[in-house]
Amino acid sequence: MFAKSSNYPKNPDKILLCHPQFFEVVDEKNVHMKGQIGKINKDKALLQWESLVLAYQKIVEQGGLTEVSVLKGEMGLEDMVFAANQTFPFLNAQGEKKVILSNMKHPNRMKEVPYYQRFFEMKGYSMLHLPDHLLFEGMGDLLPIPQTRKALCGFGFRTSKTTVDELKGLTGLDIIALELVNPDFYHLDTCIVPLNESMVLYAPSAFSEASQALIKQQFSQCIAVPEQEASQGFALNMHVVSQGEEQWALLQKGNKETEKILSYLNIKAIPVDTSEFIKSGGSVFCLKMMYY
Fold it and tell me: Which positions ≥6 away from 146 have C-beta within 8 Å?
């Protein structure tokens, strides 16, 4: 399914997660957190997170990934477990490892960034910084289109539209800016999954009409998942791992129609339970970072 070309960067083959020891809902940063303050079952959350780690380790055993790394959580940083938001690691056109550090919308989340910075420094990445006034929440809002030098960037809730031009300059990527208008989908990674240069899974209601048109212009095959599964089941916060002809999709359990779509596309669905984390507005994709 995925286009193959040595001219484009390979898919990242390593996974970074953060331990949920200090995970909790202490305020309402998105609509999914309403009514959830203090209601995290921490024992259940830990079991769910450990099951996700195990699912990734099984993909390592099958040759789909090469490494699973874990950061320890930090007291007072209850959202640090959502590892997709603090950075955007990538390979530049010369194959050098770079990482853009996020400018998070909420001040307490900015405190998470140095811990991720330290990790990527140890992995040999060069750090890139945005101007302080430009909001950006990492791979929560910037999604590479596999096997291309293109990416999708969501703006409207957590990332500023004015950030897009700066990201183009830092990454050298051709970035398509998409306006998010539905608060159920406050990050781009909750409402769209670019599978390759021609195919995308998405939730149309997440986007302005102009951005829906841009998506259809960019991808020849635009597959809408059921609204309920996308908005409440976090079906599109899945993580698709590809290695050669093999593809795996880790996604929140119970999204049966989305699983049927994946089966039709010959992508192996791996349902997992992230219900405790959904109380805070994130599922599989939010809980991990891909890196090289």
Answer: 2, 11, 194, 195, 196, 197, 242
Per the structure, the complete domain to which residue 57 belongs is given by 14-291
pLDDT of residue 8: 65
**CB-based contacts of 276, cutoff 8 Å, min separation 6:** 23, 40, 41, 44, 45, 48
Residue 106 has pLDDT above 90, yes or no: yes
State yes or no: pLDDT of 5 exceeds 60. no
Q: What would the mean pLDDT of 79-95 be, rounded to a whole number?
A: 97
5 in any annotated domain: no
The string over 260-280, giving b where at least 16 C-beta atoms fall within 10 Å of a residue's C-beta and e elsewhere, is ebbeebebbbbbbbbbbbbbb
Chain centroid to CA 287: 8
- What token pair was written down for 201? 């899974």
Task: Give Cβ neighbours of residue 79 (< 8 Å, ≥ 6 apart).
Answer: 23, 29, 85, 108, 109, 112, 280
What is the total count of domains within the chain?
Answer: 1
In a domain, 170, yes or no: yes
Q: 198: which DSSP letter?
A: S
User: For residues 253 and 89, what is the distance between their CA atoms, to the nearest angstrom?
Assistant: 28
pTM of this structure: 0.96
Q: What is the CATH number of the domain that holds 180?
A: 3.75.10.10
User: Does any domain span residue 2?
Assistant: no
Q: What is the pLDDT of residues 47-60, one digit of tens each?
A: 999 999 999 999 99
